[in-house]
Amino acid sequence: MLRGHSSWVSAVAFSPDGWLIASGSADSKVRVWDAATGAKQRVLRGHSDWVCAVAFSPDSRLIVPGSEDKTVRVWDAATGAERRLLRGHSHCVNALAFSPDGRLIASGSGDWTVRVWDAATGAKRRVLRGHLHCVSAVAFSPDGRLIASGSIDKTVRGWDAATGAERRVLPIDAVLRFLSFSSCGKHIVTDRGTLRLPYSDCRCLHHIYATGSWVTDNGEEILYIHQDYQDAYGFVSGSVIFSTGPVSYALKLDL
Q: Of the four, 85, 87, 178, 227, which is 20 to 30 A from 207 by CA?
């Protein structure tokens, strides 16, 4: 159990190399933990309001949180030094994702837009408009060509990462808080189920969910969740299960 935040934990991310965990909180701070020992490595201060989202760069060298203060900050994961401050959203930043090559950052916001930034310079590349309510989730496809965004407007939208053109709109029956692409790029996995893209014919997925007292894979109960953690909100990113709330946890599955 990782303790240290003084308020709700609202975002958690594993570094791609598996060595670090970053947690963002309503206390406006990001804490960085040793994933093996649970030891606190550093506290990243700079945001002036609730940290709503956090992401690592693909090489694990950068930590990028988004906040209720309408900004995205880029920190050096090894030193804790702030590299860049990204301004442009007019409402809270709810979701973040790096492109697979680490060159772009996508941020989804309560201002109904997705903004795409140059990760090296912090320059704004483009603004993706089309959602009719807050953007709650964002992800890049494995080849980096598509950006998917989920919204409170109950749609998932696909965008061309190079041009910003809207490629498709997938209506859904629920509000999404998380989405990612499958490893083949032909499915979008969400906390409400899996969406198959129109051209898809792929069976690469583990259908993993963390609900109630069990983690399930394709409907089979594979991991019991202790009663102390069952009331927390859980979601899955690849093979990592995150839970946020009064008590947070992160589990990495060997699939």
A: 227
